[in-house]
Amino acid sequence: GDIVAGHISGKGVYITKGMDRIEGSFVDAKANGPAVYLFASGDKYEGEMVAGGLSGKGVYTTRNRDRIEATFRDGKAEGEGVCYFSNNDRYEGQMKSGALTGKGKYFYSNGLRSEGEFVDGRLAGKGTFYFNDGSRFEGEFEDGLKKAKGFSILKDGSRREAEIVDNAVKIVGG
Asked: pLDDT averaged over the chain?
């Protein structure tokens, strides 16, 4: 890019002191608009930048191949988005300050699925966990599958009061 008043401006490549590489358009030495940000750690961001920060629609890929497609604010995923994990799990839903927090659906690579309210990537509040045999657990989750109270619903529709304790469904009174 060009140097204007001692600052890079225009299209160009900027290498930070930490050896991160930013390719895009610059105003007063800060990336603005579409850019590719290659972190020294191996992470990569492709998307909108404002005043040098990750801000707007973008795709963030970690060095271990996790990928977040979302809107970014202050460098963190915010609002609706999709996370693809290197283990082939997938999350679709709300994010807050980079965390999987809000209404969402989590699809496990083994075919299991959970949906409802999430806090930091775990079911917390009203939610449903779907098993591969067609049954499901509906209820209030406190810490993902560590603790929950609700109902076990078999694929034939029969319901029994149940709880989840340390990842295991237990029928209440049964």
From this structure: 93
Distances (CA, A) of 42 to 20, 55, 65, 99: 9, 20, 10, 20
173's tokens: 């009174």
pLDDT tens-place string over residues 41-57: 999 999 999 999 999 99
Angle 106-48-74 (CA atoms, 0-180°, nearest 5)? Answer: 70
What pLDDT, on the 0 to 100 scale, is given for residue 6? 55
Calpha distance 22→37 (Å, rounded): 4
Per-residue DSSP letter, 132: T
* Cα within 13 Å of Cα(36), Cβ side: 5
Strands (E), 19-167: 21-27, 30-38, 44-50, 53-61, 67-73, 76-84, 90-95, 102-107, 113-119, 122-130, 136-141, 147-153, 159-165
Both tokens of 174, joined, read 């049964």
pLDDT tens, 115-148?
999 999 999 999 999 999 999 999 999 988 899 9
- Average the pLDDT over 91-109 and give the result: 97
Rounded Cα distance, 21 and 9, in Å: 16
Q: What's the token pair of residue 11?
A: 């299209």
Residue among 125, 129, 166, 167 at smallest CA distance from 151: 129
